[in-house]
Recover the amino acids of this structure.
């Protein structure tokens, strides 16, 4: 079973073709864009805060079905969460939220959005959990 | 050419990848190595392992003989007039950086112009951009034609009285086209400019004769021609190398050192600072032997035939853009996109089927921009690939189209 | 430490050289490789051979995991705080050239001073001389004391308000002495200078802790520590690497490229242009595993013991000059001359007896001048050497003295 | 049998300790000095021509027993020869003249003097016979 399983693919494809929270925010409190230099995928995330919570959140950019679907999933997931809560999100949380098991070569695609969000919010560089 | 016999020399083809026999079609990134190459490396470590040049002992002598012997193989492989014209480097990238630094820092002057093409690999673009910035040089780029060939008329127009250097990719790693380097060499000579050829994608696949070509410098990478990683070569015309300042400095490349300064060793060692990749050079020598045994002309015919077949069958799928032009001047590379599917998704799906292709910008972002794409899927062939493998590729492409409903 | 067990891992010791079992005492030039290292390289070529980072396929993923895994081994071997502080290079020489070019061209200014020592290897001297000439920098050298140690008082005196960079050999490849790099690091910090350590001769033989040492940069060569040829590493403190311009440029080290210019990838890839020596890096990772298994502290004790024994016995021969000082700060190296016999004749004779030592200037001509010699014989020990081998060395030296009637 | 054979050594040692034609020439017609960068040996050869013949020849420099003995042998050998004759001297001629069989690692020592002489006389670089 993998991301190319027919049923699984249905789900990814649906989000790829009709992503939630796609777009940009005017005068965002936080905006950050980053890419994956080895493949050229790029994601930008704009956030408008509501106190210490994620108020509005939008993503834009380009990339494969998995990176785009993951960005859609992530933005849905963090909406309304506190910055503290978002900071605690791990690589594993993200992968679980994607639901579809990713083959190792696609992990970066699935994690790009989380990487961008964390870099934007806290200046954390590198893939989550990769730094030690 | 007996492909089935050849495949037996590559133990990696006994592998399964994701439950399927490996179909390796990422040869433009790096090739596989036959056991003859791996064994040459092992034999060196077991029989002759020592540092080269420096020590008066038998082990070092054996290492030096093997190492310098490999250099002679390269020299005759590209028909250089002497082994002194062959400098070992890590790969094409280091060769081009060596040239950019040595020529740029010591031999080019403010206002001098460098002519490149938009189809260069980043390795033949960024080093020149950086040295141009340091030294206030100007870079101009020749474009590509709509069908994906170098626009030679544009290149001619870009040459001016200030042109001091022209550096051109021999075969494009995306388009597969072979550029008319002989003609460009003549243009360079007429302009009194240094002419550099990036042969990273040509040397592994077609006969090269630097004398006939008339270039001043040429670079290539061993790992793209059955050799080990971490080794490649720079060819330089002797007079050019003699007149040139070294790049890296340190042990081996010196003649005499005082606290005030140093003088340089003879060619080619003047350009080889520090302990080199001895095992790598010996392995690359074995790779050249292997290629010579099979025969480059046969290899080339085989790879072109695979490309023609692949292009035809991929085109039949419909809903694809193929960037590789047709023609006898095109090597065994096909770059394409399927409408509505991101190339990573294509490559990721193929990988699940045991088929390894490359997706991405192929270190040619400016060319991608020219083609008005971000990235592409690339299948690239070598002597050990077969028509059956092309069939497996095409069948998988048909399935991924179905999966993505395009 | 079970030397007899260790020797079984090195197939080369089954060799005869000139009719005698091999006694390899040229370890400061390059070491032998255990089968574990050669096998790691072979396994890579057979199971995971692909290019790193670039391709979305399983082979490339495996290659990248192995390659980046090896980097992490190096990071923990020298106690770097992150694997991002480890840059793969061809060896110590390339590491030092990288620093000389990147710091010299982009970060140092006319009139800035660089402090070196007269005991540097050419690799830590010539690159600075060349960049100093290009950029009008000044180099000053700290001397050595009569007994063959770094003159630390002289070094202090050479530091001025213009000192921007201090680069020092950690352990001398001729004298064997270990320099007080912790103390020098403090001097550098006080002076606000960048501090570079050439660990080519120390990293293979003694524990290194870059955090405790307090250096900004450190370089070493894999082939001197059981690893393959063509690979080594540069450690750089993260803030320093972040602030620094790249050295070579091309594929892999870029973030985005246009015809006008480029931006850089994250650490450490910003400093790694082109296809790296993937097999070499993986082999060096295996070498570090091997060393960790044996234990550096035991190795060091063993090598020092061999040195003490060798010095004692060579001294007994009479009519010799020994340049290596005595003391616990001296590694397993002994450099000497026999009165009235040229060192090449000594080395040549030893080679006839199957004993491989080095004779020459050891890429340290300025140090030779200090010692008022042209060259010397050097025996250098490693974990697999034995007292019996030292005995064979000394007996052969006695015979060559007889032959030359001295 | 090798250069370290006792009897052979006698011959080399004798020339090393008491070389012929050691020294320099004032106002030489030709003078050339070259070394072997890997070992630091250096030899200088001065020549005074007598028409198209080698009139006087002297060598100086430093090096191992073999390189010094070889320089002594070479200078004896070419004295009075025409430049054409000297040009034809091969690596093999030199090794034969040395008489003592050299192990491969010592060939460079034995050939250095010939290399210097040829470079001085004709600007031929590189070890004799090594250039193709
Ligand atoms: C045309 C071309 N030039 C240069 C390079 C760089 O080669 P390497 O990465 O081996 O240095 C490549 C390969 O990626 C290439 O295809
Ligand atoms: C102290 C020292 N520094 C630098 C080097 C250069 O190392 P490499 O030749 O591996 O680049 C050496 C080895 O020769 C050395 O002993």
């Amino acid at each position: 079973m993998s991301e190319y399983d027919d049923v699984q693919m249905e789900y990814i494809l649906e989000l790829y073709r009709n992503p939630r929270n796609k777009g940009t925010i005017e005068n965002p409190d936080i905006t950050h864009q980053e890419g994956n230099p080895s493949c050229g995928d790029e994601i930008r995330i704009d956030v408008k805060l509501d106190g210490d919570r994620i108020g509005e959140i939008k993503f834009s950019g380009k990339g494969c079905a998995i990176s785009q679907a993951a960005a859609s999933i992530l933005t849905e997931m963090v909406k309304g969460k506190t910055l503290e809560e978002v900071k605690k999100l791990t690589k594993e949380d993200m992968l679980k939220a994607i639901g579809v098991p990713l083959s190792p070569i696609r992990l970066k695609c699935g994690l790009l959005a989380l990487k961008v969000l964390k870099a934007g919010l806290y200046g954390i560089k590198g893939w989550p959990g990769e730094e030690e | 050419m007996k492909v089935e016999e050849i495949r037996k020399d590559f133990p990696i083809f006994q592998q399964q990848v994701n439950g399927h026999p490996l179909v390796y079609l990422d040869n433009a990134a790096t090739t596989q190595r036959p056991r003859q190459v791996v064994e040459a490396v092992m034999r060196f470590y077991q029989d002759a392992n020592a540092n080269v040049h420096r020590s008066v002992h038998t082990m070092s002598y054996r290492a030096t003989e093997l190492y310098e012997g490999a250099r002679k193989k390269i020299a005759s492989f590209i028909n250089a007039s002497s082994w002194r014209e062959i400098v070992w480097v890590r790969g094409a990238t280091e060769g081009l950086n060596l040239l950019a630094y040595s020529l740029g820092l010591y031999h080019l002057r403010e206002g001098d112009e460098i002519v490149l093409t938009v189809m260069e690999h980043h390795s033949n673009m960024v080093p020149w951009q950086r040295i141009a910035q340091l030294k206030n040089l100007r870079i101009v780029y020749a474009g590509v034609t709509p069908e994906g060939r170098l626009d030679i008329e544009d290149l001619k127009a870009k040459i001016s009285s200030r042109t001091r250097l022209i550096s051109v990719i021999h075969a494009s790693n995306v388009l597969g086209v072979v550029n008319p380097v002989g003609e460009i060499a003549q243009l360079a000579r007429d302009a009194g400019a240094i002419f550099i050829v990036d042969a990273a994608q040509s040397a592994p696949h077609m006969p090269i004769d630097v004398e006939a070509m008339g270039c001043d410098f040429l670079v290539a990478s061993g790992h793209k021609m059955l050799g080990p990683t971490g080794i490649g070569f720079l060819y330089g015309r002797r007079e050019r190398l003699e007149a040139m300042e070294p790049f890296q400095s340190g042990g081996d490349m010196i003649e005499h050192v005082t606290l005030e300064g140093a003088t340089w060793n003879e060619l080619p060692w003047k350009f080889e600072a520090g302990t080199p990749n001895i095992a790598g050079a010996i392995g690359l020598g074995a790779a050249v032997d292997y290629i010579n045994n099979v025969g480059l002309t046969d290899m080339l015919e085989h790879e072109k035939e695979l490309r023609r077949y692949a292009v035809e069958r991929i085109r039949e799928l419909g809903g694809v853009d193929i960037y590789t032009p047709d023609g006898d001047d095109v090597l065994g590379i096909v770059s394409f996109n399927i409408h509505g599917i991101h190339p990573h998704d294509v490559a990721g799906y193929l990988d699940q089927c045991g088929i390894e292709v490359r997706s991405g910008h192929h270190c040619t972002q400016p060319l991608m921009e020219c083609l008005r794409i971000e990235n592409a899927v690339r299948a690239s062939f070598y002597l050990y690939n077969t028509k059956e493998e092309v069939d497996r590729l095409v069948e998988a492409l048909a399935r991924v189209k179905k999966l993505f409903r395009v």
Notes: The longest helix of chain D spans residues 107-122. The first strand of chain D starts at residue 30 and ends at 35. The pocket of pyridoxal-5'-phosphate (ligand 2) is lined by residues B 251, 274-275; C 91-93, 121, 123-124, 169, 173, 198, 200-201, 221, 363 (CB under 6 Å). Chain D has one domain: 3-122.
